[in-house]
TrEMBL record:
This is TetR family transcriptional regulator. The keyword Cytoplasm does not apply. The keyword DNA damage does not apply. Residues 14-74 form the HTH tetR-type domain.
Length: 188
């Protein structure tokens, strides 16, 4: 039985599919969606470009399956509401921030695709908006959660653009100052 499109028994097909996904993930993060071709992905793996399409169907499906925006945000929701703003900023700046910024840049550059835009919205809803909204009390909780999401996107975009006036700020100071701005929306 064959392993077309990643289905069927494990073996060579599963290994090839995983290698394609790994190469695509790196190339999309480095060059964006438009700057990454199926040929480049295939060349990175050492296979014929037709195999990329065989395993994933299209470049867009490959992008949607491989690009992830891990948000280490869950831990921020543990603790008192009075310091949630700072915890959110700290969580967003923690972990592998350069990788997160590169992935976010790839997603932004690919946002002309309806499917990619929908995937980005879905990721944001599940990993950030819904859990945050559950933490917020008072009126306009959904609106406030979305505005906090917009604040965090703005910060990450500015950092991803290497704004020297932000990238050289001590992390603790950035967390404290930006955390207060986020906290204003948390408090409502």
């Amino acid at each position: 039985m064959s392993n077309v499109a990643g289905h069927g028994p494990s073996g060579q097909g599963a290994t090839t599919r995983a290698a394609i996904a790994e190469a695509a993930s790196h190339l999309f993060a480095e060059h964006g969606y438009a700057g990454t071709s199926v040929r480049a992905i295939a060349a990175a793996v050492g296979i014929d470009p037709a195999l990329v399409v065989r395993y994933f169907g299209s470049k867009e499906r490959l992008f949607l399956e491989t690009v992830r925006l891990p948000l280490p945000i869950a831990k921020a929701f543990d603790g008192p509401l009075e310091s949630l703003g700072e915890r959110i900023v700290e969580a967003m700046l923690s972990g592998n921030l350069p990788e997160r910024l590169a992935t976010m840049g790839a997603l932004m550059r690919a946002s002309d695709s309806d499917a990619v835009r929908e995937k980005v919205r879905e990721i944001g809803e599940l990993t950030f908006i819904h859990p945050l909204r559950a933490q917020l009390a008072g009126p306009d909780a959904d609106l406030r959660a979305r505005l906090i999401g917009a604040q965090m996107n703005g910060l990450l975009i500015a950092l991803g653009m290497d704004d020297d006036r932000l990238t050289h700020v001590e992390r603790a100071r950035l967390v404290a100052v930006y955390g207060r701005a986020v906290q204003a929306l948390v408090d409502g």
